[in-house]
TrEMBL record:
Top EC class, one word: oxidoreductase
Intracellular or extracellular location(s): Cytoplasm
NCBIfam families noted in UniProt: tRNA epoxyqueuosine(34) reductase QueG
Taxonomic placement: Bacteria, Pseudomonadati, Pseudomonadota, Gammaproteobacteria, Chromatiales
Biological function: Catalyzes the conversion of epoxyqueuosine (oQ) to queuosine (Q), which is a hypermodified base found in the wobble positions of tRNA(Asp), tRNA(Asn), tRNA(His) and tRNA(Tyr).
Gene: queG
Cofactor annotation: [4Fe-4S] cluster; cob(II)alamin
HAMAP family: QueG
UniProt-recorded name of the protein: Epoxyqueuosine reductase
Residues noted as binding [4Fe-4S] cluster 2 in the record, renumbered to the chain: C205, C221, C248, C251
One Gene Ontology term, aspect cellular component: cytoplasm
Keyword annotations of the record: 4Fe-4S, Cobalamin, Cobalt, Cytoplasm, Iron, Iron-sulfur, Metal-binding, Oxidoreductase, Queuosine biosynthesis, tRNA processing
Species for this entry: Acidihalobacter aeolianus
Enzyme Commission no: 1.17.99.6
Catalysis performed (reactions): epoxyqueuosine(34) in tRNA + AH2 = queuosine(34) in tRNA + A + H2O
Length: 366
């Protein structure tokens, strides 16, 4: 090694230090051999578990072969950033109030894509300042990247039975990001699974989307149904969604490892617009302009106003009957969107059938 060649072991240690300084909870380095993960991905796709997420199959094997996605890549720097917002309403309390809407905790603050991408760019700039120009590309759930297998190889954590990444010291309330690079950095040791015989996540899933340990049928997953699915939510699954209007955290809420999760120190992930415990009726009254204004800079905006109303209509249909809910639904009964009208009609039918049984319970969210 001549005087112009960086000490790669020292550089790897510095990268991890710089990552911590930039707010990442962990930084690890992986090689690009994802052959085992590729087999699992192809099997998952063959079973149709990806549903309408055509992008999962669109890029061929580039997802599992980093050097085909970014030629010259030989290492992946994987990072973790905790997102659990401090001082937010207790998730289980919100889930137990059927007139409140539950938003997945990751979406309560600023869109994580923007936050992580900026920090990854800053990390790359620090590396460049240290060694000069080098090849890299940053990703944050924004391209065909198998981020969880890469993070496991990089020592960040292991893929749990619910298919989320878990870390012994941080649970699963975190985002992942990657720097693909041509630097021949020393790699870290992969993390073995520590799920043991636990199956809490499998048993708690409202729609039984975790069809076997480490195997998720996205077509039944509430996160898929409320975020990824563009069309109508299957009728048989609507009652199981409860009051979850954007995503679902049930498998994380019951995971024993999340007792070690820490609240995020990132101001960007603090709760916005009181969406940690909102009233369904109030959200359902938002115009499209209000929706766009109140979700500016948020990951929620990507589903659009139409799907937002679809999701809330389902939640209102699952809530106990009340005159206020029925009136809110009727105001949207002639909405221009056929999809919204369908879900509103379903919700009103639920309330009508409840009324005929004589069962009436009113909850108030204070």
């Amino acid at each position: 090694m001549d005087s112009t060649t960086p000490d790669l072991a020292r550089l790897a240690a510095e990268i991890k230090l710089w990552g911590r300084e930039l707010g990442f909870g962990a930084v690890g380095i992986a090689d690009i051999d994802l052959s085992d993960a590729e087999v699992r991905l192809l099997e998952w796709l063959a079973r149709g578990f990806h549903g309408d997420m055509d992008y999962m199959a669109r890029h061929g094997r580039k997802r599992s072969r980093p050097d085909e996605l970014v030629p010259g890549t030989i290492r992946v720097i994987s990072v973790r950033m905790d997102y659990l917002p401090p001082d937010s309403a207790d998730p289980e309390t919100v889930l137990n109030v059927p007139t409140a809407g539950y938003v997945s905790r990751y979406a309560l603050g600023r869109d994580y894509h923007k936050v992580l991408r900026r920090r990854l760019q800053q990390l790359a700039e620090r590396i460049q300042a240290r060694i000069g120009p080098f090849g890299y590309r940053a990703f944050t759930d924004s391209a065909p990247v198998l981020e969880k297998p890469l993070a496991q190889k990089a020592g960040i954590g292991w893929v749990g039975k619910h298919t989320n990444l878990l870390a012994r010291e941080a649970g699963s309330w975190f985002f992942l990001g990657e720097l693909y690079t041509d630097l021949p950095l020393p790699t870290d040791w992969p993390v073995a699974s520590h799920c043991g015989t636990c199956r809490a996540c499998i048993d708690v899933c409202p729609t039984q989307a975790i069809v076997a340990p480490y195997r998720l049928d996205a077509r039944r997953c509430i996160s898929y149904l409320t975020i990824e699915l563009k069309g109508a939510i299957p009728e048989d699954l609507r009652p199981l969604i409860g009051n979850r209007i954007y995503g679902c955290d049930d498998c994380q809420l019951v995971c024993p490892w999340n007792r070690y999760a820490q609240a995020s120190a990132e101001a960007d992930f603090a709760v916005r617009h009181d969406l940690d415990a909102p009233r369904l009726i109030e959200l359902f009254a938002w115009s499209e302009a209000e929706f766009l204004a109140r979700t500016e800079g948020s990951a929620i905006r990507r589903i659009g106003h139409e799907r937002w109303l679809r999701n809330i209509a389902v939640a209102l249909g699952n809530a106990p009957r009340s005159a206020g809910i029925a009136e809110a639904l009727r105001r949207r009964a002639d909405h221009p969107s056929a999809m919204v009208r369908e879900h509103v009609a379903w919700a009103l039918m639920n309330h009508d059938s409840t009324a005929k049984t004589g069962f009436m319970t009113i909850h108030r969210w204070v």
